Amino acid sequence: MARASPLLLVLLACGFCFATYNLLTMIMHNRVVGRGAGDESDGLLVSDPIIEMPDNVKKPRNAKLPFHIALTATDAPYSKWQCRIMYYWYKQQKDLPGSEMGGFTRILHSGSPDNLMDEIPTMVVDPLPAGLDRGYIVLNRPWAFVQWLEKATIEEEYILMAEPDHIFVRPVPNLAHTGYPAAFPFFYIKPDQNEKIVRKFYPEEMGPVTNIDPIGNSPVIIKK
């Protein structure tokens, strides 16, 4: 058998080391964030992703701040099944230790009631008028939230903006605090690649575009 060249062996060794380093870094990061989100062994959050929460606003684990779960949905069969699964798991986790989950509302932006009204707490709102989405159909979601906030009486001080494909596998703590919302970072959301659009809402005097977190409208826990 032909012997492998020394250069090939060196390249393989470097590649293996690089892959191992990235794997270990990812595991350690997830453990730290996981402890911050769910561990009650100490009194405070351990770590906050993207932007570190100031020490003076971190709350003890025994201080509960309930949040209302709100998700926008359509009356399509696919969306209905997602909502039913999500609501089932919400009920399983809501009252377990460590949970700060409050009420639940499905914001149905179809304009008319459907057959899940008696099964899932639902508010019906109007769809976005034809043509206003300019081809971006998910604009129905923020428009639905606007109508819900104008009409609903929300007891909780915080709101989790969610979507039907979210599933609660553990009790969810409220990681937000006053002016510091909590959100999930998405690797594919890159504000710096859309600076012309972003600058309409984030002027240069506010800082570089890279300061903007790579998040969407959900999941986000925010004070109402």
TrEMBL record:
Hydroxyproline O-arabinosyltransferase-like domain segment(s): 67-223
Alphabetical list of InterPro entries matching this protein: HPAT-like, HPAT/SRGT1-like
Main location: membrane
A GO-annotated cellular component: membrane
First and last residue of the signal peptide: 1-19
Keywords: Glycosyltransferase, Membrane, Signal, Transferase, Transmembrane, Transmembrane helix
Protein topology in the membrane: Single-pass membrane protein
Cellular localization per UniProt: Membrane
GO MF annotation, one: glycosyltransferase activity
Keyword NADP: no
Membrane-spanning intervals of the chain: none
Protein name, as recorded: Hydroxyproline O-arabinosyltransferase-like domain-containing protein
Lineage of the organism: Eukaryota, Viridiplantae, Streptophyta, Embryophyta, Tracheophyta
